[in-house]
Amino acid sequence: MSTVVMNASVSVDGFIADENDDPGPLFEWLVSGDVPLDDSGVLKVSQASYDHIRPYWDQVGVTIAGRHVFDITDGWDGTPPSGIDHVVVVTHRGRPEGWDPEAPFHFVDGIEAAVDRARELAGDRIVEFAAGDVGGQALVAGLVDEVRMDVAPVVFGSGKRYFGSVRAQHLLEDPDVVIEGNRVLHLRYRVRR
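Structure tokens predicted for Dihydrofolate reductase:
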């Protein structure tokens, strides 16, 4: 069965964007190196970041995101980000009107349904939850196996929280990955069961 990972770039004070959904300098690390991360020619990271991120991206088969993220990215123009095969969108509104039914996007109502559909699509590849409200709901529901954070050296003070509206304590294991890149610290924690 596939591993379920919650992942995002995050400020040192725990935010994935400001109040207006602007990630600001959180993604500077993706353009602060000299090693191409993908074929776009835009993303260039340090060698340490590349050695950590590229193998992870290559293992991700499905990303699960909420409707809010889908809407603010304009559905990635119908092409899943970072070479991912499928996106599962958690929404109570269903597929947008006029959306191409052949695009590899799947619209489901609820976190558990999203994980079920994503695991079916991913096979033995990683299922990735976008951080924020949907990822936080998955953590609370006990559906997340590990948490990955790309911590950027910035303090937002307020904004969209990495764990969304999670208000209760959830224990993680000690970090089993700690990698310093340019403008980023990559961390990975297993979720304590």
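The CA atoms of residues 86 and 185 lie 27 Å apart.
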